[in-house]
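Worked example (supplementary).
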Amino acid sequence: MPSFLAPPLQPLRIRFDSPAATAEPAGPLLVRRMSSLEGLFEAEGLRRELADAGDPIVYTVASSPVPELPRELPQSLTTIAPGTLGGEFYMTKGHQHPDPQGEIYLCLRGTGGLLTFDGATTSWIEMTPGVIGYMPPGWAHRSINTGDEEYQFLAVYPGSAGHDYQWVVENGMGERIFQGPTGVVRRPFRVDTGVPA
Ligand code: F6R
Ligand code: ZN
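After joint prediction of all chains, the assembly is encoded as:
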């Protein structure tokens, strides 16, 4: 099982193989299935049903061997499957960097979006191949596949940034992204109280 390298690292040539979503040399590969996305989709009941019936892969994250440590600059390739759950597009969990640090995503293939939220304001960046989305420090971020093929992007981020997933569970992302009759529909995030609206 590939893992991160221990510092001090030597200068390194890294090749990300798109669309295979492998890094050479390889670091860890993370596979996120429906069962690991509890409480993130609006249709939590449907998510649970799907997790119990087949538990499909929603996205994978293939990292290079550069470790998530201060002063390093790790990279990873995220591939999100096409699909919707209760009309809401397949997406990543989303997180905040506990050490507020910026990050860039470069879209490699497919069609998607980058949803960012600073706790008050939501921003949406459409992502197509060749586009870089920049997340400034302090903005939680989530990626969404809005197309009917896989959506893939390269992330480059400071190794000291860290990942706080609970922040998004508690604060949401300001909006949810649904498939509408003519394309993407952005809806205000609402907390599911279990009581029909
Ligand atoms: C790293 C980063 C990306 C994401 C990846 C999966 O800081 O933003 O590499 O980690 O796209 O998304 P999450 O981490 O939200 O499951
Ligand atoms: Zn990040």
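Two points are worth noting when inspecting this output. The CA atoms of residues 77 and 89 lie 19 Å apart. The mean pLDDT is 96.
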